[in-house]
Specification:
Elements lengths: L9 H35 L5 H5 L2 H4 L4 H15 L5 H13 L6 E2 L4 E2 L4 H32 L4 H15 L2 H15 L18 H31 L2 H8 L4 H38 L5 H11 L2 H29 L1 H4 L5
Antiparallel strand pairs: 1-2
């Protein structure tokens, strides 16, 4: 027997997804190119000579002027600074995107690609845990606040979220340190592990993750609440209730699925913002992630690390946009059916 009319093969179903994502990925290529130009220009406008910053005083003091000048020129050629600024840009593009080489760190005196992987992994651990917890907590709170609009629960959540948005992350981090480190002595103040192995590693994650969760939670709750309130006014929600469906099915199966469309946008926007915000958190808790590395690199004027770190944050922004596109395909039937180009 042949296929029923209207039935689709797997290829026919997946084609709109692939086409939609391919168009979005292609459109991001010129954006990425512009990002690299901006990053490279800003870093090269920084004052100071990176080669002079690399000089070891103990090593160069005993040198004659000629030997010192020769050493500087050798290092300049090694770092590629003997070439023009435009040539260095294209060399950087080639090395970064085609050879996986991100330059040489004057802070650590080794190639950046041997350093940065561990810092990215640590940042992902803290930020992804914090973001997932914030998202899982914000959904039920935001939905309940929308359902109980203008009631005591909703008013309480509104006040709490306003306070949460108003508190800077560094101030919240200091409050947690004062309470849980100084007074209660429940968690370590900084670092990521105990050299003696006495304190479990997970305790070093609690305070940074808590700051990320609390600073993200207020905005997410308000956004979920606002999206749900808007959806609950729709005609199809009244129709679903008139059909006798239970309130739980109306809220979670019909209303929340449509409320997810604007929430997906917020999540995609939050991905780069979370890692950007972790610069403050990682600095305060001395947690060696990308935020901490970026702060250190700026202090040492380490251009190779700065370029790589900023490119990382730029790529996160693009990944956030891809996440939004994928999320739209999941929650918006029109895109799943290929009706939205």
């Amino acid at each position: 027997m042949g296929h029923k009319s209207g039935s689709k093969t797997f290829f026919e179903i997946i084609t709109p997804y692939i086409t939609y994502l391919a168009k979005r990925l292609i459109s991001l290529i010129p954006v990425l190119f512009i990002i690299t130009i901006v990053i490279y220009t800003l870093i090269n406008l920084m004052p100071g000579d990176p080669i002079m910053a690399m000089l070891d005083p103990e090593k160069t003091t005993a040198m004659t002027i000629e030997e010192r000048n020769q050493y500087v020129e050798t290092m300049r050629a090694f770092m590629g600074y003997d070439k023009g600024i435009v040539a260095r840009y294209f060399i950087w593009l080639r090395d970064t995107f085609f050879e996986g080489e991100f330059g040489y760190s004057i802070r650590f005196n080794k190639p950046v690609n041997l350093i940065i992987g561990d810092y990215i992994a640590r940042s992902f651990k803290v930020n992804i845990i914090g973001f997932i917890l914030a998202f899982l907590i914000s959904i039920p709170i935001g939905i309940t606040a929308a359902v109980k609009k203008n009631k005591l629960y909703d008013k309480f959540i509104t006040v709490v979220t306003i306070v949460g948005i108003s508190i800077p992350s560094f101030f919240l981090a200091l409050l947690l340190i004062l309470l849980f480190v100084v007074y209660l002595r429940l968690f370590p103040f900084s670092g990521m592990s105990d050299p003696k192995g006495v304190i479990p590693d997970w305790k070093y994650l609690v305070l940074p993750v808590t700051v990320i969760v609390l600073t993200s939670l207020a905005s997410l709750v308000r956004y979920v609440r606002a999206a749900m309130i808007e959806v609950l006014k729709a005609d199809y929600i009244r129709t679903a209730r008139a059909k006798g469906l239970t309130e739980k099915i109306v809220i979670y199966r019909h209303a929340f699925q449509n409320a997810l469309i604007p929430v997906v946008t917020l999540i995609g926007m939050y991905i780069p913002l979370l890692f950007g915000g972790s610069i403050v958190v990682e600095k305060i808790f001395a947690y060696p992630g990308m935020g901490y590395l970026l702060n250190e690199a700026y202090g040492y004027k380490d251009r190779a690390i700065l370029q790589t770190a900023l490119l990382f944050f730029g790529m996160l922004t693009l990944l956030g946009n891809i996440f939004i596109d994928i999320g739209y395909m999941v929650v918006d039937p029109r895109i799943r059916e290929g009706k939205v180009k």
